[in-house]
């Protein structure tokens, strides 16, 4: 019996958002930054992009957010 998925922020399934974690060794939960279209690690402050409703949880694709932000040319 399939009930259809409930779409949450960034078009992600709400059940998926509950189980997603940072792929680094600490496996901390991720929070949603809708304005930036990213999932953010609660421990290391890495931001993982969400592209076309698909979270890209690759450490090489993540950016380090930092408290004040960094300027990009």
TrEMBL record:
GO cellular component, one term: cytosol
Superkingdom as given in the UniProt entry: Bacteria
Gene3D superfamilies, alphabetized: 2.20.25.10
Pfam families named among the record's database cross-references: Trm112p
Family per record: Belongs to the UPF0434 family.
Protein's UniProt name: UPF0434 protein SAMN05660657_00692
Organism, scientific name: Geodermatophilus amargosae
């Amino acid at each position: 019996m399939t009930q259809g998925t409930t779409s949450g922020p960034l078009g992600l399934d709400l059940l998926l958002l509950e189980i997603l974690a940072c792929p680094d060794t600490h496996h901390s939960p991720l929070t949603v930054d809708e304005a930036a279209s990213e999932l953010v690690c609660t421990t290391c402050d890495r931001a993982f992009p969400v592209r076309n409703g698909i979270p890209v949880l690759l450490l090489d694709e993540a950016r380090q957010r930092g408290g004040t932000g960094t300027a990009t040319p």
